[in-house]
Design goal:
Length: 278
């Protein structure tokens, strides 16, 4: 059976390793087919493709787009995208645009909460100045010794109701699905188990996504519990979505699941790669 991992990050977004090092780790962990899916960025795809080619590792160009839907952030993964597609490139650039201003506001809130110099501190952890994310602030807060790990940071800071949370308007669901589809890719709802929607809202999300041309959901991901693998397998069957799998690996020692280390998809699903030439 193929070992497939279609969701992870490099230091082009909020991962720790450069794209080529992520490729090497995927290969070493036994991955056969690998996608790099940096947040709102495709500038790591070329290096990732070259590294995968040299390792004889199956490569899928990807991205994870930040979307605001019904007042919450949803992530839409795009797989098999043409990363040079102009509308996709421009759309992602626009989505990245507000991040620096948001980061300055986050730093202001953190200063008021007794965490000084957070903008500069987070910036030291950033691999791409266009993509300052909450993860970089979390690493700085750990470095300061204020929390033992980034998980603790995301319980006490940077989330709604806690210091350092600045709400942000990302792309619309319609835009993200259109950019991905226009670039020849497949749109996938990332880690649905992480969103705090009611059953009714989830129903509307899945219906709208499908109507817009969305094709797949992540069933098995580092963000889901084993119970949630089964829960979203049922959703995939009910809505006739293709099923995807990905570790969401961000870095050694930081992510719950390493590259290629998830169990295979539950039975009775159509994998998102069913019609890819692998
Ligand atoms: P941003 O796009 O700046 O809002 O940052 C979102 C990123 O923060 C996610 O992609 C995760 O890598 C990280 N993150 C968000 N919430 C958590 C959490 N509860 N635990 C660990 N990491 C988180
Ligand atoms: Mn992330
Ligand atoms: Mn995500
Ligand atoms: Mn991710």
């Amino acid at each position: 059976m193929l070992n497939v991992d279609l969701h992870c990050h490099s230091n082009v977004s909020d991962g720790i390793l450069p794209p080529a090092a992520v490729a090497a780790r995927a290969k070493a962990n036994g991955v056969d087919v690998w996608a790099l899916t940096d947040h709102d960025e495709i500038s790591g795809v070329a290096a990732a493709r070259a590294a995968a080619g040299a390792l004889d590792l199956g490569f899928v160009p990807g991205v994870e787009i930040s979307v605001t839907w019904a007042g919450q952030t949803v992530h839409i993964v795009g797989l098999q995208i043409d990363e040079t597609n102009p509308a996709l490139v421009q759309g992602l650039a626009a989505t990245r645009n507000g991040r620096e201003g948001r980061a300055r506001e986050m730093a202001g809130q953190l200063a008021a909460a007794g965490i000084p110099d957070a903008f500069e501190g987070a910036l030291r952890h950033v691999g791409n100045a266009d993509l300052m994310s909450r993860t970089h602030f979390a690493r700085y807060i750990v470095e300061l010794g204020r929390c033992v790990d980034t998980k603790e940071v995301f319980r006490n800071y940077l989330i709604e109701g806690k210091p350092g949370y600045v709400p942000h308007r990302w792309a619309s669901l319609e835009q993200a699905v259109a950019w991905i589809g226009g670039a020849g890719g497949v749109a996938v709802i990332a880690h649905p188990g992480r969103y705090r929607y009611s059953d009714m809202e989830f129903g509307v999300l899945f219906d709208q996504f499908k109507q817009m041309g969305g094709k797949a959901i992540e069933v098995t991901t580092g963000s889901h519990t084993p119970d949630q693998y089964e829960e979203y397998a049922r959703v995939a069957r009910r809505y006739d979505f293709l099923a995807s799998i990905g570790s969401d690996f961000h870095g050694p020692g930081e992510s719950r699941v390493d590259l290629g280390c998830l169990p295979p998809l539950p039975a009775g699903l159509t994998p998102v790669w069913h019609d890819w030439a692998l």
